[in-house]
Amino acid sequence: MIKNQMRMTHQRDIILRELRKSTAHPTADELYERIKKELPRISLATVYRNLEILSTAGLIKKLEISGRRKRFDGELRRHHHVYCLLCHRVDNIDLGQEENFQFLPAEAGGYRITGCRIEFFGICPDCKKKTQGDKKDGL
Amino acid sequence: MIKNQMRMTHQRDIILRELRKSTAHPTADELYERIKKELPRISLATVYRNLEILSTAGLIKKLEISGRRKRFDGELRRHHHVYCLLCHRVDNIDLGQEENFQFLPAEAGGYRITGCRIEFFGICPDCKKKTQGDKKDGL
DNA sequence: CTTAGTGCAAACTGTTTGCAGAGGG
DNA sequence: CCCTCTGCAAACAGTTTGCACTAAG
């Protein structure tokens, strides 16, 4: 399995920059929409391909998170996320001193555990505002 | 929002039973394949529709978990999962005394947090066996 | 009887892939 | 100049939906 050369193309570079410049955890097509302003002829397939390549190369992270679309993160340090049940946005969350707590299961059912993901969900500040006064049920 | 009548059809009942009888967290089409043996004329759309209805009614749980297919769980009590990175199966995991630990973030970024999901990943017993002796890289 | 639920096929959403040509190193 | 990458379109996987018929209560 010889590691082949990864070229830093203009498209790839812009995708990487765009991803690093916010903490918004965009989906492939959110990224595509933003990048089109700068590079109008880029195709969605290129965005998908590069996100895959960049995450395999370890330059970005692919998030396994609620919702049906994949999300990507330019921040490589270990951290966790909050997911808004209403608008589906994803933010970072600070776990304080718990951050380094090694949360390991008593009984792993024979699994070799390689990692753990902690995800919070709830209502984001904007959606809280929008539903202020409403009686939203089921949440 | 008047709750309409949910009829317990033969299909729905079998789906519910099937889901309750194992801890395998099946996807819609795994369930479909199993149920077809008993009910050969059932359609995949019916399985999807019923899983949606049953989870809205709170009789089963829809899992937000790694992988691209939705998974469903007949166990309603709070528990967490392990995901096999190789074969994608999902098992329950026992967190021991940590189970009731209220893992709440120091700084929720203005979110109203309604819940938290903890997911482990790794290699399941079967895949461990299969890769025994191999030098698998990247895990 | 009424109206929720069914099977089927077709639509839809998010993602991946084959191909011929472009451009990074 | 080679070979990775690109844009495009078409394929794909998983899920949802419109419709006319069926069956639960």
TrEMBL record, chains A, B:
PANTHER family: FERRIC UPTAKE REGULATION PROTEIN, ZINC UPTAKE REGULATION PROTEIN
Signal peptide: none
Family recorded in the similarity comment: Belongs to the Fur family.
CDD domains (UniProt xref): Fur_like (cd07153)
Species of provenance: hydrothermal vent metagenome
Annotated Gene3D superfamilies: 3.30.1490.190, Winged helix-like DNA-binding domain superfamily/Winged helix DNA-binding domain
Keywords assigned by UniProt, alphabetized: DNA-binding, Repressor, Transcription, Transcription regulation, Zinc
MF-aspect GO terms: DNA-binding transcription factor activity; transcription cis-regulatory region binding; zinc ion binding
Protein's GO biological process: negative regulation of DNA-templated transcription; regulation of secondary metabolite biosynthetic process
Name this protein carries in UniProt: Peroxide stress regulator PerR, FUR family
